[in-house]
Design goal:
Elements (H helix, E strand, L loop, with lengths): L11 H22 L3 H7 L4 H23 L4 E2 L10 E4 L4 E4 L3 E3 L4 E3 L4 H36 L1
Antiparallel strand pairs: 1-3, 2-3, 4-5
The chain binds zinc ion (2 copies).
One zinc ion (ZN) binds next to loops.
Length: 152
């Protein structure tokens, strides 16, 4: 019996990181194909500063995500019994981590001493990106409703 998680491309961390990247790139791509302010800003380049800010925020958020994922959170290689102060054992990683914060399943890694700042920058930038993207979607719906209303 083959265990799915034994296949290299079925590992949880690969799937979750691929889904995250696909969402962060896919949702704006869909919005660019529709009649939205993002299309007017990015595709027709009517608002260059708007377009550059949005794309920079998106890139920054992705870079922080992958830094938080890939930077060693501060694993302790010595046996668990001799762990230093403020470290904690992670059951998911099977390792002790310096200044352990939590095991993040959206990153599929621990958040600890060395990736904590990237994790916070990721949270800040992805929150801003989500709010901005919701506002673009909302404005497009309002714009379409107004158009339907006034043309009727
Ligand atoms: Zn341990
Ligand atoms: Zn962990």
């Amino acid at each position: 019996m083959i265990n799915l998680s034994d296949l290299p491309f079925c590992r949880a961390y690969i799937i979750i990181r691929a889904v995250h990247t696909a969402l962060v790139i896919g949702v704006p791509l869909v919005l660019i194909t529709q009649d939205t302010e993002l299309r007017r800003a990015v595709y027709y380049f009517e608002r260059p500063i708007y377009a550059i800010c949005y794309l920079l925020l998106l890139t920054f958020s992705l870079v922080m995500y992958f830094l938080a994922c890939l930077v060693n959170p501060g694993y302790i290689e010595t046996p668990c019994k001799t762990q230093p102060m403020r470290s904690k054992h992670c059951e998911d990683c099977k390792k002790c981590v310096r200044k352990y914060d939590h095991h993040c399943h959206w990153l599929e890694t621990c958040v600890g001493e060395r990736n904590h700042r990237f994790f916070w920058l990721f949270l800040l930038s992805i929150s801003a990106l989500i709010l901005w993207t919701i506002s673009i979607t909302w404005n497009a719906i309002v714009y379409r409703l107004e158009w339907l209303y006034f043309s009727a």
